[in-house]
Design brief:
Chain lengths: ~280, ~110
């Protein structure tokens, strides 16, 4: 089955991982801007990272027939640093016209500080001004409920935002309903420990249905799984859900959300499965 | 675009009995892992639960398993920061997995 992984930090992964993803049916990945695991020293360092995301990774993915797209932002883990954030926000617009940039992300909160909220709000404004899709990171573990609530409240403060162009990612059981109720897309990131498992993600689909819900692996430099999405599909089959429902979640839904960007195109080999996105 | 599949909830096609057949062994294993973790803590330091808020919250969550209804959301809330306001300053980069209510009460 073909699938799209809307959240994969491929700069942290090996080329073998691209191959494994392609072998399991991945046709496209989108890569949100991430924290390197240590704080970058200056805006130049972040700008080099944006070049890696927009120039190098698409070529690496293309070797295996995988389309690579990206999101640009100051990641929430670094967004408490206001000086760095202001510097990076000034640099982002010149990258937005690049052919594989889909929007602003992942933006949001980490420990839910006043500085993080200020940077997050500025990044939402940036997305609105430049008419970009938005990908929201929600905090981890005990911070998720409060952080998601405040993130959604900030979004609701912007009348110009079309919630159908926003995905709130890393959702879990206690945040899914709030995100859906406000008209946003829900992202479930399948993680071995700190987020949601494939089994629990299937429970969410069973409880809420597939409308505006996507799943992703969110693989990065930590313990994570580049083929988490096919594991979700396998779990769906284990519960005897139909292939049409699985395809809706792992392919049609992300194609629908990402296809709102005119830049998002699926490779020709992927389009026999119906999707709204353009053929590359 | 017309989506080919209903957007309504999709309950598991498996019956209760089939779910037990399919998932009992792996969840039995998980249950034993939790019991073994708590026994391990007791052997190492029987008083740790009195000092470490994470263990206290963990035990509270284990008790929540025995209730009816939406156990998972209940446990998520037990583990969550119940406050609603932002932090004035960044204290650390990473979350710990549970909220230290006692320390928060001491700060307020």
């Amino acid at each position: 089955m073909k699938y799209i992984d809307h959240h994969a930090h491929m700069v942290s992964r090996t080329t073998d991982d691209y191959q494994q993803m392609a072998l399991t049916g991945c046709v496209a990945v989108t890569e949100p801007a991430f924290w390197a695991g240590w704080d970058r020293s200056c805006g130049d360092s972040v700008e080099d990272y944006f070049r890696q995301l927009t120039e190098f990774e698409p070529k690496r993915a293309a070797q295996f027939g995988v389309q690579h797209y990206t999101w640009l932002a100051v990641n929430p883990k670094e967004s408490d640093d206001r000086a760095l954030s202001r510097d990076v926000l000034q640099r982002i617009p010149k990258f937005l016209d690049r052919p594989t940039v889909l929007g602003i992300g992942e933006i949001g909160l980490n420990r839910v500080t006043r500085n993080e909220i200020a940077t997050y709000t500025e990044q939402v404004e940036l997305a609105i001004v430049h008419r970009q899709l938005i990908l929201i990171h929600t905090p981890h573990l005990e911070d998720k409920l409060k952080g998601t609530t405040i993130s959604v409240d900030v979004l609701r403060g912007f009348r110009q935002i079309d919630p159908r162009r926003v995905m709130v990612d890393h959702a879990e059981e206690h945040t899914v309903e709030m995100i859906l109720d406000h008209g946003f897309w829900v992202g479930l990131t399948l993680y071995p420990q700190t987020k949601i498992s494939p089994q629990r993600a299937v429970d969410v689909i069973e409880k809420y249905g597939p409308e505006r819900i996507c799943v992703a692996g969110a693989c990065d430099w930590g313990p994570s799984d580049p083929i988490a999405v096919p594991r979700f599909a396998m779990e769906m089959r284990r519960r005897r859900h139909p292939e049409s429902l699985i395809q809706r979640v792992v392919f049609d839904n992300p194609a629908h959300f990402l296809g709102q960007s005119p830049k998002f195109r699926l490779p020709a080999h992927a389009v026999e499965t119906a999707a709204p996105a353009r053929i590359g | 675009m017309t989506m080919p599949i209903s957007s309504r909830p999709h309950p598991s096609p498996l019956t209760g009995g089939e779910l037990v057949d399919e998932y009992f062994i792996e969840n039995r294993t998980r249950l034993l892992e939790i019991a073994a973790f708590l026994d391990r803590l007791d052997r190492a330091d029987p008083a740790v639960a009195g000092r470490d808020f994470r263990v206290q919250v963990f035990l509270e969550a284990v008790h929540a398993l025995t209730g009816d209804g939406d156990r998972l959301t209940r446990i998520q809330r037990i583990l969550s920061d119940p406050t609603t306001g932002p932090l004035e300053q960044l204290d650390r980069k990473s979350a710990l997995g549970a909220y230290d209510r006692r320390a928060a009460e001491g700060r307020s």
